[in-house]
Design goal:
alpha/beta; 2 domains; Peroxisomal Thiolase, Chain A, domain 1; binds coenzyme A
């Protein structure tokens, strides 16, 4: 009997979308007691994109997904699973944003669902797509990280409103037998004992929608900024050291290190701890802020569109978010080089 070739999951394509409107630090200075200098020094963020009032998470997800499908050189009809990571879905909590995106893309009769893992959402999706593909259940999985974070930000709270932005990123993950274009490994984990570090209290079964909940601002994101910062540095660093060690890969072998884009100081601390050069570390936080589940794919898309990301490049992803959740991934980029 002929030996069955092992099937791997390949990161086939990337696409992203950032809404047109830009919110600058100077504009924030007119809204809360802050300054461009403080925001730049403490976060590295210069501006962030904000969706229009009638532009929803699914709309941004669709725009990113259309690019990813086109760049994967497949027809939308070949997609057999649609997954969306978001903490700012079109609706709390039915229908899923993945169902709405599928419909807007004209993808029907295909399994679609959302996951909630905050900023770690995209790498969590990658682990799900990998498992579905390697088990032979699916062949082409569309994964989307999309957030209209501005819909849960309190623009009178200077501790959070300076950080977050809107956007979406998407990728097609496909089956391959070529190990040189495969996702090598993914580590994803969580610790609910830190659940109170990042919370949107309402609506939910603890605080169902009510006038009181709105009056108390429970529909806005709440964050223990400094505690989150410290844990992020520690967890992100530990996470990548472990995945590199587990796969016998040295940090100098990484072509692109793409960490979650939350704060320049966090990114720098992790990059320094790993001994990575400036050229290896991808940085987009200055122009998008923290776009939660969209942050990693938007950053991948940036280096793809600028021609830096090439087929076969060794990429290390590292993310951290509410839950708390965290995840890292090692992969050879399996997509075609940017042609235009
Ligand atoms: N402008 C000016 N001053 C501000 C401010 C702002 N936007 N936000 C907070 N401050 C003030 C605080 O009130 C505090 O003042 P005080 O010393 O008089 O009390 C001071 O700055 C320091 O606050 P602190 O929260 O300790 O600052 P920080 O160095 O931790 O920076 C964050 C704040 C939010 C930028 C930082 O904690 C952070 O990035 N945290 C992680 C966020 C994150 O990654 N979240 C998502 C995870 S996915």
């Amino acid at each position: 009997m002929p030996q069955k070739m092992p099937v791997y999951a390949s990161f086939r394509s990337i696409g992203a979308y950032a809404p047109e409107m830009i919110l600058t630090n100077e504009q924030l200075e007119t809204m809360v007691e802050t300054s461009d200098e403080w925001i730049m020094k403490r976060t590295g963020i210069k501006e962030r994109h904000i969706a229009a009032k009638d532009e929803y998470t699914s709309d941004m997800g669709v725009k990113a997904a259309q690019k990813a499908i086109q760049r994967a050189n497949i027809s939308k009809d070949e997609i057999d699973l649609v997954l969306c990571a978001t903490v700012t879905p079109d609706y709390f909590n039915m229908p899923s944003t993945a169902c709405i995106i599928s419909d807007k893309l004209g993808i029907h009769d295909v399994q679609a669902f959302d996951i909630s893992a905050a900023c770690s959402g995209f790498v969590y999706l990658l682990s799900i797509a990998k498992a579905f593909i390697e088990s032979g259940v699916k062949k082409n999985v569309l994964i989307i990280g999309a957030e209209k974070f501005s819909s849960i930000v309190d623009y009178t709270d200077r501790g959070t409103c300076i950080l977050f932005g809107d956007g979406a990123g998407a990728a097609v993950i496909s089956a391959t037998t070529d190990k040189a274009e495969a996702i090598i490994d993914i580590h994803a984990s969580a610790d609910g004992s830190y659940a109170d570090f990042l919370v949107t209290p309402s609506p939910g079964s603890v605080h169902p929608a009510s006038h009181e909940a709105i009056d108390e601002g429970l529909h806005f994101v709440k964050m223990k900024g400094n505690e989150t910062f410290k844990l992020a540095v520690k967890t992100l660093t530990k996470d990548v050291i472990e995945i590199l060690k587990h796969n016998h890969i040295a940090s100098e072998d990484i072509k692109h290190f793409i960490p979650h884009q939350a704060n320049y100081r966090i990114i720098k601390a992790v990059g320094d701890a790993l001994g990575l050069s400036k050229e290896q570390v991808v940085l987009t936080v200055q122009k998008y802020g923290n776009t939660s589940a969209a942050s990693i794919p938007m950053a991948i898309n940036d280096i793809y569109e600028s021609g830096r990301l090439k087929k076969g490049d060794l990429v290390l992803l590292d993310t951290f978010g509410g839950g708390l959740t965290w995840a890292s991934a090692l992969l050879y980029f399996g997509g075609e080089d940017q042609k235009y």
